[in-house]
Every structure is written in C-alpha cells, then in structure tokens.
Amino acid sequence: MADRQDHWVFYFDPNRCIGCHACSISCKQFHGRDSDADDWRTVTHHQNANGQHPSASEYDPDTASPIENVPISMSCMHCHDAPCEEVCPTEAIEKRDSDGIVTIDQDKCIGCKYCGWACPFGAPTYGDNGLMSKCNMCLDQGPGSGAGAESKNEQDDPIQPNCVSDCVGGAIKAGPEKEMIKEASQAAADRFKSNNERVIVEPFQGNESNLNLVEHAASENAGD
Amino acid sequence: MSEHNSALTRRNLLKGAGVAAGAVALGGCLSGDQSNSQQGALSTAFGNCWMCSHNCGQKAYVRDGSVVNLTGVDGHPRGSAGEGTEGTLCPKGLAQLDKTHDPKRIKEPHIRENGTLKKVSWEKAFQYTAERLVSFDENNGAETFLDATSWAETDIFRTVWRDLYGSPERISRGIHVCAGPTFVTGGMMGVGSNNRVPDYQNSEYIIAWGRNILNSFAGQFEAKGVLEAIENNGATLVTIDPQHTITAQKSDEWMPIKPRTDGALALSMANVIIEEGLYDEAFVENHTHGFDAYREAAMDMPPEKAAEITGLDAEQIRTVARGFAEAAPQAGISVWTGTAQAGNGWKATQNITALNGLVGNIDKPGGLRLWKYPSTASFGEVCEQDYTNRAEFKDPALKKYDEYSDYPARHIEGIAHNLVPEMVENEHINGIVCHHDDPLKDGNAESWIEAIEAMDLVISIDAYWNGVSRRADIVLPEATQLEKDTLGTGNWNAYPNHKWVTGSKAAVEPRWNTKPDFDILKGIANEMVEKTDNDDWTVFQQWDSHEAYIDDQLSTLDLTLEDIDSGEKNYALVEEYDYQQYGENFTFRFDLDQIDSFATAAEEAGMDTAPEWIPPGTYGDSTSEEYPLEFTDIRSVFFSHGSNQPHERLQDQFAKRNQLSEEDYRGNYLYLNPEDADARDIETGDMVTIESETGSGELMAIVTERARPGLVTSQYGFGQTSAITTGEDTREQSADGMNTMMLHNEQMDPITGQVDRHIAVDVAPAGGD
C-alpha cells in the first residue's frame, strides 16, 4: 500500500481564483461531457448578504469589504475516508491504494445513488444512463473512465488534471499530498491536517465573514 | 435581405445542436455517458487563440482529425505569467474546441439570388464576388466600399481592399469602437497606446482604472501579472470602478467612482502630487511639454472639490495619489475602454495618462512600458511584384464632404462608427466587406441594421450566421483559428524585455466546405485578374500557401513557422530591449497644443488642448426625469464582442456565474442596485424592459449591491443580430437577451468618434419571470 503522503490531493487558493469558470469548462471538454450535464468541478459564488454598495463616506478599505462575492472552485476531494466507497453495495467505487484517487467502475455501478447521499460535497453525478460519474483527476477521458488505470505515481509524466492545466489564476493545483503540502501556507496545512486531509485550502484574505464562507465550503457541511 | 420570426425557440434548437457538438468534440470516442476504448492515436498541435484577438498560446490535442482537448502553453508571452509559469486558457479560449466542430457554423459559400441565400461552390462564389466587385466599382466607385476586416489574422486584407480594390474607407475595432481616446491620446502625448498595459511584473503599485483586469483581459498574462505582482512584490492594487468587480475585490483600495467623472479624479490626484512635491521634477523639466497648463488645471481640482464631483472620499483620493507617486517609478496605470467609451472620454484619458508623465514612470520597470513590436517583414517588403496602390490619393468621405463638417472627429480619424448610416444615406458608402466583426453590436445599432440592408453590396467572411452574414449578398465561410496556419505578435506581454512571435500550423483540416482567410482572399484576387484584366491582382500568386507567406514575414527574424511551431512551445522570444531607450529628446506632452489636427478638432469641439475637467453630459446623455438611470455596457470573461455567444458551454457557465442557471434564459443580465430595483418593484430573475430615447429591449434583471445606485449595466454582444441561431433563415429575434446598442443613437467622443456607451434610460418590469 502506498503511503498516504503519496495520495493525490487538490489544493485551492481562493485568493488567486478569479471566478472565471475555466476549470468547469475545461473539465467537461476533457471528458467529452455535454454542457448541461452536472459539473464535476463547480465554481460557486459566495456573498455576504448584509453588504451594501458603500457611499463614499462609509467606505473604509481597511475594514469593510461589504459586498464581496467570493468564488470557490471545488470537485471530488478523493477523501481518505471516502464515504462513497463505504456505502457502495457493488464495490464499484474504489479508493485506490496506489495514488489515492477514487474511481468508479460503471460496469459494476447499478445507479442506486447511495454514494450521492453519502458524499457531503455532492461530488457524484448521474448521467442519462443513471450511472454515477465524477472527477477521476483525469486518469482517463470520459465518465467512468480511469477505473483500473495505471497509478499516477507509476506514470513517467502524469498529466495534471485539466482543471489545473487551465486555471487562469493558478488557484488550483494537484499532486501527491507530500508535494502539495509544500505549496501550502502553515495555516492551510494545519487546517488540512485537522479536516481529514481532504483538500488544501488557503485562508482567504478577505473580511471575517467571507473567511467563514470559504471555511464552510471546505468543511463537511458544505452542502448545508 | 428581409427577416422573419419563427415559432421555434432557441433553446429547442440548442438542445439538439449541443448533443451533436458534444459527440463530435471527442471524435466519436464517447457516446453519451459511455466510455469506449480510445480510437486513433493522440497527437498535439498548437494554436494562437483568436477569440479575443490577443494570441494566448493553445496546445491542442487531436485524435482522428478532431480536437479533443485544449490547454495553454507554458511560458507563453500572452498566455502565462512568463518564464517557468503555467500557460492556461480562459473560458473563451477553451471554447475554440467547440467552435472548431460547431454544427451551427456556416458550412458552405452562399450567394443571394432572387432575395434568398443559396449554397454555391467556391468557384462560383469567387466568380460572383469578382463580378459584383467590378460592377460595384462601375456603379458606385470602389472608394465607397467600406473595409471592416480589422479582426483578421492576416494582413493581406488591407492589401486587397485598400491597395488593390482602391477603397480608403476602413473601420477598425481598436480606435473606432473600442477605446479611441485611449489609443489616440497616448499616441499624441508621446507614449503610443502603451498607456493601456503597464509593466505588471515589476510593479509595486497598480491602478486598474475603469478596468476589470482579472476578468476582462487582453491576454491572460494581464490577470496573471497582477496576481504575481501582488504575491511577489507585495504590490498595492487599486481599482477605480463604479461597480464592484472581482478586481475591486482583490484590491487594497476600491474607489466606487461616479461614472464619467474619472477626469476630475485624475486632476485631483495630480493636485495632491504637485502640492506635496511628490512628482518627478527632473523628468518634468527635461522630458515634458505643457506642465504649466497642466498644473493650472490640477490646482483647480483639490480633493474636496473632486470628492463632490466623483462621489469619492477626499482622504481616499489623497491616499491613492500619494501611494502612486511614492511607489513611482515602479507604479503603473492600466486604462482602456472603461474611461474611453464616454462622451468626455478624451479628457478623462488625457488627464489619466498625464499622471504617468508627472511621476516619471515612463519606460521604467514597473511603470508605463514603451512596448515594442518585433521586426517582422511587412507585405511591401516581401512582395516581389510592383503594383499600384489604388487608394493612395483618395480621401475618405468623412474628410472629403461638407456634410460632415460639423464633426471635429474628421480632423483626427477617417471614419466614425456612428456616422456610417448617415454616410450610407448620403451614398458616400454603398457597400461593405465584414470579416468576423459585428458592427451591429458596436453602436447606433438600429440605423446600422437599416444601413446594411440599404447597401448595394454586402460581403461577409465569417464562421457564424449573425446579423451581417444573414443580410449579406455573398457569404464566404471561414475556417476558424485551429484550422489554419497563423502567425501572431504584438507588443505588451509577460516578458518586459523581449519582443516575441507566436506561430501555429493548422491543428486540423478546415471543417466542412470552409477555407482559411488567406485562401479566400487569394481566391477573390485570382478571379479579379480574370474580370479586370489587371495583373496587380496576381500579387498573391508568389505564395503557394499561407505558411509560405508567413515564412517570408519571419525571414527578417531568421525564423520559419516550422521553427516556432515545434517541440513543447509555439512562441519565440526575439530581440531583447532594455528600459528607458527613449533618448534625450523624448517629450511627453501634457498639453497637446503642438498637435495641429487635435488643436483644430479641440477648438471645434469647444475643448482646451491641455488637461481639463469636462463634466458628463457636455457631450452625450444626461439623465432626466423621463430617463433617470445611466446605462453603460460591460464585458465578462466568457464573451468577447459578439462572436462567442453561440457557445453553449459559455452560456451555461455564464448563467452559473450569475447564479441563474436554473432559468431557461441564456442572455445578458441587467445589474441594478436594490434601491433602484425596489422603486420599480423588480427582483432578481425578473424580465425587465430597458428603454432609452432611441430604443428598448428586454433582458433578465439581477438586483445586487455590487451595482451602483443610479447606474445599470449589462454585457454587450447579445440579443438582436446575434450569432446565436442556426441556418440561413432568420431567427435572430428569438435570441435571448438584448442588443444593448439598440438603446444607442449617435453619442460619441467628438475628437475620435469613439462610440459613447453611456445612455440615459429607465427600466420597468416586463411582466412574467
């Protein structure tokens, strides 16, 4: 079994995300998915409902970012304790020992959607055929692909997930945990350790209420 | 050239088309949600993204003759942050994959017979084009044929329409409908149009003035450069914008300025900088002209006065003025369309650009860089054949006829977008060749539509059925960027010490019965040899292919297209150059009294030659009881002008970006403040009618605090005349959203004729959701 440090994880820096959705489009194009299918990588926009467009006299750039609209890009986090794998009755979902990527074998999938209920982040999606598909860190192209593919850690020059390759702001990264943690600030690394090591998210350098939004998006209660 | 509405809805059409596009995109490897074993071998090729014409490098993955994936090119001068950084593609650039295989594209040449567009062979299309050009010249004069082909990826368009056909009428995207005041003031003041893009990478203080650089960029290196400057240099970012944007959000200072008051803010910043002795005295003394007149105007605009005009806080004005001046010369301003697309845009831009001269950041690291183009060969240098320039001694109508003597712009420019309908009415313009441009989205839209319909000859070279191609007499379907050889270059980029070129060979064959623009023009020229007996039209026969012509262009750099488009990248850094190469005699002009053409135009417009404050409404609209709101249009990262709107992925993600993807609507949105919305009983998701004195339209409202009270905005490029629907029959009325320029009449900057996109309007619920 590969060391957990070799398992691939995503890294996201909201301070560099420009909310352009290139990641969502890039993901769908790589996997040949229709535009109106559910996104495997989503960009959501989070705002502080209390803000108002400031009049000049009220605006204080040091303390007030009252109408911020924070973009957050997320996908399947390939959890170490993947709940989707645990509930899958046909063992179609596999948390791979070799590189930590969670794959779905559609030949075994019966479309029961237990995984969709179990995942706190809404990562599994279901196509017209009723079968589950989701991010496979671009092990291969297309829904359901990647099951049985060679480990990213065994590949000579493993390709980056397409969302990483096309992230205009350089906000998304992916790689073995031991490498990604080097990219992270101490605060991001600490939170990663205390949050089941799912995804590394840099602290947002905005006002406090928006920091909470980002924290929330990376927590188990993200769907609430 | 008439239109009719259809009962079919656009969404029905798109649903069908989208499924087909998705299957084609993967070359048949995948069907629906099923993955089959991969078919042919995967190969890679390159592209120079032309979605917004700024040439970010594309790496294309090709299987079985289809593009199956696109990413960026690492280290690319326009598509990355420079050496050792990742190249990427923005949403528009990614959409080139769908565009390549989009079944909604024009697939065959068409000519109009008995009022209807009919498919014909290329041979027939070229013959007919030549016949019509010859008869047009006989009946109207070639000089009344308007060349609207500035969106081209090859420079031989100009040779064909100006030099060989003989028309002096040319309209461009840059000066005439994008940012005339920015381009032209910069040129007259001595810095060219480099006032747009500072040296981000080395900057410690960046002002995004009326720009949303992180979403509406001219090459991704702009957004990346700003983020790098913040991260690596700890740069301060200031955004001056009435709306709150992603760039405002990432800024240290956001200045929510009242629209069209930027000129007062710029003078006020100069006031602070001069009063507090923070300007570069040596530069001002040795390298500038007109400082006294500038100082006088600045002294008349203390921060408290500017605060009243701009709605900003006087202390914030002082803070930013000091911050900018103290960081100089490592301080830069980026200014482009936001301050230029207004009636008083000339003075706004002159006053803003003047700040660079004041702090002496000209061509210094982190400041206003005097970017340079590489020395590729011009057409004249590589053409081995002599020919007569048939437009050489012809004046454009704007300069020639008394009908236009009331327009000061005739001293500066050869044409003004808004005046074309009047020129058609006067029979000074009788035909047009339009290439990938959509003038019907650029201003005075209703009159332009009538003008196109009244013209004797309309030639459209395009990939989509849009307002122009649907009304054309001749439609020549063009292959898109990844289907042809291209050479790209420019000035500003991620390598401040290098000139650069980017090249790409066709990644795939032209789809359907389309041709690259070079081949289309050569085809027309060859037929013109037959029809005119004039051998000048044989000038293109010396090149067997566009690649051969590109190789000649590159010969001065000792490069070939093959050299550039090989290995892991598709660009070359050439000709290193240092900062401050402008020499002792360089002069930065605050006052433009030495420029005779401008002095004459300014006098006619009632303007001074030096920086001064001109209030909104002096030229252009003022709000009124009937039209109490100010409208202006904006851009988003998903769309460039009018050509990206057909792409369903962009439409859908744009709707998600606006958190309205659950609605069936896929048009542009009208953003308005809750204060204005409440007064009109409007909520997010409501369809609303917007009306000006000129026209009206319907679109979906978004109520947001990010919008400034009294100002409503929307993305342009949608609605009527859009390239959204399919086929030769016209369903453009069913396109979602509105053509914002249906609200527009002839408002313009009097000096350059640049379209003024600030319009007095009112908004009301349209009924229904």
From TrEMBL, chain A:
It is an enzyme of class 1 (oxidoreductase). The keyword Protein transport does not apply. Transmembrane segments: none annotated. The keyword Translocase does not apply. Gene3D superfamilies: 3.30.70.20. SUPFAM superfamilies: 4Fe-4S ferredoxins. Keywords: 4Fe-4S, Electron transport, Iron, Iron-sulfur, Metal-binding, Oxidoreductase, Repeat, Transport. Residues 8-38, 64-98, 100-129 form the 4Fe-4S ferredoxin-type domain. Its EC number is 1.8.5.5. It comes from the Archaea. One of its GO terms (molecular function) is metal ion binding. PANTHER family: ANAEROBIC DIMETHYL SULFOXIDE REDUCTASE CHAIN B-RELATED (PTHR43177:SF5), PROTEIN NRFC (PTHR43177). This is Fe-S-cluster-containing dehydrogenase component. It comes from Halapricum desulfuricans. The gene is hybA2.
